[in-house]
Design brief:
The complex is a heterodimer.
Chain A (H helix, E strand, L loop, with lengths): L12 H5 L15 E4 L2 E4 L10 E5 L4 E4 L4 H16 L4 E4 L5 H4 L9 E6 H9 L1 H9 L3 H7 L9 E4 L2 E4 L4 E6 L9 E5 L3 E3 L24 H13 L4 E3 L8 H23 L4 H15 L7 H13 L1
Parallel strand pairs in A: 4-5, 5-6, 6-7, 11-12
Antiparallel strand pairs in A: 1-2, 2-3, 3-4, 8-9, 9-10, 10-11
Helix pairs in contact in A: 7-8, 8-9, 8-10, 9-10
Chain B lengths: L1 H9 L12 E4 L2 E4 L10 E5 L4 E4 L4 H16 L4 E4 L5 H4 L9 E5 H19 L3 H7 L9 E3 L2 E5 L4 E6 L9 E5 L4 E9 L18 H13 L4 E6 L5 H23 L4 H15 L9 H12 L1
Parallel strand pairs in B: 4-5, 5-6, 6-7, 11-12
Antiparallel strand pairs in B: 1-2, 2-3, 3-4, 8-9, 9-10, 10-11
Helix pairs in contact in B: 6-7, 7-8, 7-9, 8-9
The chains are: A alpha/beta, B alpha/beta.
Chain lengths: 310, 301
């Protein structure tokens, strides 16, 4: 595995791969936990590439949020949803079409009404196939889950907002991209529970899939603005893409971190500090300031993304 | 005056029953023709490989059941979606027969439906016993999916684009477009040899927007559909959209001209009804109130 080219604008995906081999099997397991009436989460267990998966049950129908990676995880999630929802019609939505969140969709084709945002469908058409080979390089445990992967088309594609009435329970889908990535989508259940996808995580540095020229659908200012809007909703129960279920305070922490990286990278760039040196400086400080957070390798990605977006 | 005119013109009309045989106008795209029966719309059933979409229900539970039965015959055991071109009673008040399928509206349509459904029900019941009979037992059904802007349904080998265009004929006008098949269901944005309907009934409903309606038709013409399904009347092609646009432009410009000459509303209406009936001699002349409310609507803007 090669290191990134020093000083290069194009930080290869190999940079994120280096030092990250030996991924544990990204397999969802465990029982759904009820967070609020009819709102369940299958916790990620803090396993890389495993998302928090939501299952929301209304009087008439039920909603699944994210699938995990690959057909086996998708099938597992579908079985859990059926166990909770019985024979109610199902909807499937995803918080973004990256492998961890949306590459188990095939298990739901014909079983659920699959709803994507326009940005998610674009990512399906233009970016998703390229992710397969990249993610297979993450090690045999990840490659195994991608065996038998098929891409399926959504049944419903919206641009703007979309509301799904499950019968006494309402889910509001809202696209935010480009923010953390091109196709971020949040799912708000009534005014009770917010599923945020990778717009924020709990106790880990935000994952920033910025791999020019491979994937550059990042917009740091819009990401921060999105978090500001989500904070203003004051939702009591907040489900991050990864990590423990939390509250709005966690969104505030992530927003503050992103502002810190944005402002510091701008300051250092203005002083003609190279991107590599800026990344090293910011990583050193951020590790101290957010000392309980895991996955510090994402700090330098955040720095590079903000620095180069200036 | 308008209500009397409406009642007078519709009092003796045929029962507003969906009574057509579905005709396949493009691969998998069926239309149940209105037969030019007042208060019966053209209804669509679009059948893909794994799902089907019904466009409009007809008025009341009996029509809804008829449409449901025909849709099931065409779609087999495919799951159904239902959408409406707009909320008006003859287009959407049969939705209760589709309570168990996925109903999709745009947000303006849903909000307008919630705000006006009861008022329109009461008004329509006064149109005559034959109408009131079909509206017996109407129940209002909320959609499961509400979108803003536009929304694509992939029925399997057949993509249907739903798009919000209101405020025009109503606040929530929705066009159902199959870009590949080049079929467009226009709802009451477009009629064939009927005068376009201005639901301008102050103070109950003043939301019709003739200017936006004209702009909408310009944009729909640019999409160049090969088959245009109007809300009422025979199927046609994109030229029908242009015909409706030109009528609206004429109504607008003549209203403005007569108003600029200092004429009051009654005088303008009195002038334009015979003039426009004469200029559209092959259009159904039985509801001149449509011209009158059009004049009132443009004067009020």
């Amino acid at each position: 595995m090669t290191a990134s080219r020093p000083g290069s604008d194009a930080v290869g995906i190999d940079a994120v791969l280096s030092g990250t081999t030996g991924y544990a099997a990204p397999v969802l397991q465990g029982e759904p936990v009820e967070l609020s009436e009819g709102v369940f989460v299958i916790p990620d267990g803090r396993v890389s590439l495993v998302p928090n998966v939501g299952i929301v049950v209304g009087r008439d129908s039920a909603l699944v949020i994210d699938t995990g990676v690959g057909p086996r995880n998708g099938t597992f999630v579908l079985a859990q949803a059926r166990a909770i929802a019985g024979d109610r019609p199902l909807y499937l939505v995803i918080t973004q079409l990256d492998p961890g969140h949306g590459f188990g969709t095939q298990a739901f084709k014909g079983e659920a009404t699959i709803v994507f945002s326009e940005a998610q469908r674009n990512r399906l058409v233009h970016n998703a196939p390229a992710y397969v080979d990249v993610f297979k390089q993450l090690g045999p445990a990840v490659a195994a889950e991608l065996e038998g992967l098929e891409f399926v088309e959504p049944d419903v594609v919206y641009d703007g907002h979309l509301e799904i009435d499950l019968g006494g329970v309402r889910a509001q889908l809202r696209p935010w991209g480009p923010a953390h990535t091109g196709d971020d989508q949040t799912v708000l259940i009534d005014h009770r529970v917010l599923f945020g996808g990778d717009l924020f995580e709990t106790r880990m540095f935000p994952i920033l899939p910025y791999f020019p020229p491979f994937d550059t659908h990042f917009d740091g200012d819009r990401w921060i603005a999105a978090l500001d809007e989500l904070i203003a909703l004051h939702i009591e129960i907040v489900v991050p893409g990864h990590g423990e279920v939390t509250d709005t305070g966690q969104i505030v922490e992530v927003r503050d971190y992103l502002e810190y990286v944005r402002d510091e990278s701008a300051r250092l760039r203005a002083q003609s500090v190279s991107v590599d040196d800026a990344a090293a400086t910011i990583e050193e400080e951020a590790r101290v300031r957010w000392s309980t957070w895991e996955t510090p390798r994402w700090i330098s990605f955040a720095t590079r993304a903000f620095y180069q977006a200036e | 005056v308008t209500d009397q005119a409406t009642t007078a013109s519709l009092g003796e009309a045929a029962p507003p029953l969906v009574n057509g045989v579905p005709e396949e106008v493009a691969d998998g795209v069926f239309v149940i023709a209105d037969g030019r029966v007042p208060l019966v719309p053209n209804i669509g059933v679009i059948v893909g490989e794994h799902a089907a979409l019904v466009v409009d229900t007809g008025m009341g539970p009996r029509n809804g059941e008829t449409v449901r039965r025909i849709a099931t015959e065409l779609a087999g055991d495919r799951p159904l979606f239902l959408t409406l071109t707009h909320f008006h009673p003859e287009h959407g008040y049969g939705a209760q027969a589709f309570r168990d399928v996925t109903i999709v509206y745009n947000r303006a349509q849903r909000d307008e439906f919630r705000a006006k459904a009861s008022g329109y029900l009461d008004t329509f019941k006064e149109l005559g016993d034959h109408v009131a009979r079909e509206l017996e037992g109407v129940e209002f059904v909320d959609p499961q999916i509400v979108y803003d802007g536009s929304c694509d349904l992939d029925l399997g080998g057949k993509v249907v684009r739903l798009r919000t265009w209101g405020a025009a004929h109503s606040l929530g006008d929705q066009v159902v477009h199959l870009p590949a098949e080049r079929v467009m269901f226009c709802g009451d944005l477009v009629e064939n040899r009927f005068f376009p309907i201005f639901p301008f009934f102050p103070p109950y409903d003043v939301d019709v927007d003739g200017d936006k309606w004209i702009e909408t038709l310009e944009e729909l013409e640019r999409l160049a559909p090969a088959v245009v399904v109007p809300g009422h009347g025979e199927l046609s092609d994109a030229s029908l959209i242009a015909i409706n646009r030109k009528y609206l432009e004429l109504l607008r410009s003549e209203t403005a001209r007569l108003a600029a000459e200092g004429n009051d509303a009654d005088t303008i209406i009195g002038t334009l009804i015979p003039q426009l009936l004469g200029q559209h001699s092959d259009w159904d002349p039985s509801e001149p109130w449509r011209i009158a409310t059009g004049v009132q609507s443009f004067l009020a803007r």
